[in-house]
């Protein structure tokens, strides 16, 4: 039995971003339209000329931009990582990163999803990014789908609600895994796969107006993603047996609001519904409570013969997850005040402080999450997102004194270390938004997570210059001391 004193040797320290929030270059290099590019249209239910917009020519792009310039700006331009990745990776190397988590932009590789051939220019872009990382011995950790898919597949099949998308995704995954088989070892199939249920367009490319029952369509889409993830895992092992394939969950630990058994039961149900995703991807089958849950909600999942076997035979090598906050469950939630937004809307926990966006600060919850996941599955874990969204101030002398971010990261890393000492097998930690990027939920630039500041405001104005925040030097020391110097 290993008596762990601290983080193991070779612990993968690093940072994380996603293509749709960082790259920009939305119409560069032959890239097609992705769901992330269209979010403003769908939020406003503005479907006018959508088909026309799918054909990327400068005229239609201009039209799109003039139509929705303010709302359309952020994700389409990101922080221009597309052109500045060398400068950014040099900063990550200076931080001492062992790993860097990023996603491949699916429509950069297959602009429409169903194209006969991949887009060579897109493939070459990631060749250059991975080569640059390798130059500094930084191990890429690659998400195949982070909150996006080609819009053409959305229009044709209503996103993941259509079973046909499985084949297109597997082909895309096979293409990039083959191309980068000597450059990338760690792969994640879907970012926060549970988003498909919580935000069907963001997670599953589902246009809700097109379905009668959103919950039915979302669980069906999720099933297709599970099958696709397993088929990709099977292919991955054929392409390179040394690949390590992980699932990725937005872990939402739910505490009961009181010790009333009804509240405890509700918290258990909410936790089970969150862990359903890892149950399928790690254990290889749906948990038993799902049959009753689906039937009580009028949901019937269409499964093809062979699906169960596919899920059973190709489970993941490791479990990755994001952790930002903890949530609270009650049988009568209306009796309590609510806080938070997007994925993390919840009852207020009187014991916790909150960020400006209402996310509750709970470092101990990370230890709880780690211990519980390890107890349940006995697979290596990887914290691939964790961080504090905050508004930063640039002082007159150019410094950014983000002590609040240091405090957040220190407390969470301390709890992670405690979990490691409890015996949890933890592979690594990538803080979210190592460099400031566009927020997923608010599309703002000013909700910043980075230890590197990017000069850009919520309207896309700024030099895009990069600056080191106070947390940069702090995180550098943490990594150099393998988590001893906190
Ligand atoms: C996760 C997503 C990320 C990310 C992060 C922070 O749910 O995987 O893409 O953005 O949350 O959220 P936000 O940007 O909304 O503050």
UniProtKB/TrEMBL annotation:
Keywords recorded for this protein, A-Z: Glycosidase, Hydrolase
EC number, UniProt record: 3.2.1.86
InterPro entries: GH (IPR017853), GH_1_N_CS (IPR033132), Glyco_hydro_1 (IPR001360), Glyco_hydro_1_AS (IPR018120)
Signal peptide limits: none
Family: Belongs to the glycosyl hydrolase 1 family.
Source domain of life: Bacteria
GO molecular function, one term: 6-phospho-beta-glucosidase activity
Residues annotated as catalytic: 385 (nucleophile)
Protein name as it appears in the record: 6-phospho-beta-glucosidase
């Amino acid at each position: 039995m290993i008596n762990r004193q601290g983080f193991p040797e070779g612990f993968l320290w690093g940072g994380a971003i996603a293509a749709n929030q960082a790259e920009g270059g939305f119409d560069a290099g032959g890239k097609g339209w992705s769901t992330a590019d269209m979010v403003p249209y769908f939020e406003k239910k503005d479907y006018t000329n959508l088909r026309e917009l799918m054909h990327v020519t400068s005229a239609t792009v201009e039209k799109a931009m003039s139509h929705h310039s303010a709302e359309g700006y952020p994700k389409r331009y990101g922080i221009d990582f597309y052109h500045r990745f060398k400068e950014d990776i040099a900063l990550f190397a200076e931080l001492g990163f062992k790993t860097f988590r990023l996603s491949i932009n699916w429509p950069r590789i297959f602009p429409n999803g169903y194209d006969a051939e991949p887009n060579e220019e897109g493939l070459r872009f990631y060749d250059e990014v991975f080569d640059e990382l390798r130059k500094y011995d930084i191990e890429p950790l690659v998400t195949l789908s982070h909150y996006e898919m080609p819009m053409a597949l959305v229009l044709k099949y209503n996103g993941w609600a259509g079973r046909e998308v499985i084949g297109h995704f597997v082909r895309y995954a096979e293409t990039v895994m083959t191309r980068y088989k000597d450059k990338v070892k760690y792969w994640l199939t879907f970012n926060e796969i549970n988003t498909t249920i919580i935000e069907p367009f963001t997670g599953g490319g589902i246009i809700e107006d097109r379905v009668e029952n959103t919950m039915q369509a979302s669980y069906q889409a999720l099933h297709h993603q599970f099958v696709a993830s397993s088929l990709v895992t099977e292919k991955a092992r054929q392409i390179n047996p040394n690949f390590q394939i992980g699932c990725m969950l937005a872990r939402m630990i739910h505490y009961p609001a009181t010790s009333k058994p009804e509240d405890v039961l509700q918290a258990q149900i909410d936790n089970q519904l969150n862990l359903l995703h890892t149950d399928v991807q790690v254990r290889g089958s749906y948990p038993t409570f799902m049959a009753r849950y689906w039937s009580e909600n009028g949901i019937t999942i269409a499964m093809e013969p062979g699906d169960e076997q596919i899920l059973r035979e190709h489970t993941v090598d490791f479990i990755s997850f994001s952790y930002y906050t903890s949530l609270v469950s009650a049988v009568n939630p209306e009796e309590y005040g609510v806080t938070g937004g997007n994925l993390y809307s919840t009852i207020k926990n009187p014991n916790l402080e909150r960020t400006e966006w209402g996310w509750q600060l709970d470092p101990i919850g990370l230890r709880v999450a780690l211990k519980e996941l390890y107890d349940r599955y006995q697979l290596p874990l990887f914290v691939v997102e964790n961080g504090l969204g905050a508004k930063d101030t640039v002082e007159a002398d150019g410094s950014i004194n983000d002590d609040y971010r240091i405090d957040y990261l220190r407390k969470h890393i301390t709890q992670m270390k405690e979990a490691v000492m409890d015996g949890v097998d933890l592979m690594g930690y990538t803080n979210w938004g190592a460099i400031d990027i566009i927020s997923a939920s608010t599309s703002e630039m000013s909700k910043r997570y980075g230890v590197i500041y990017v000069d850009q405001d919520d309207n896309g104005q700024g030099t895009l210059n990069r600056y080191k925040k106070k947390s940069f030097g702090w995180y550098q020391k943490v990594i150099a001391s393998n988590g001893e110097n906190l």
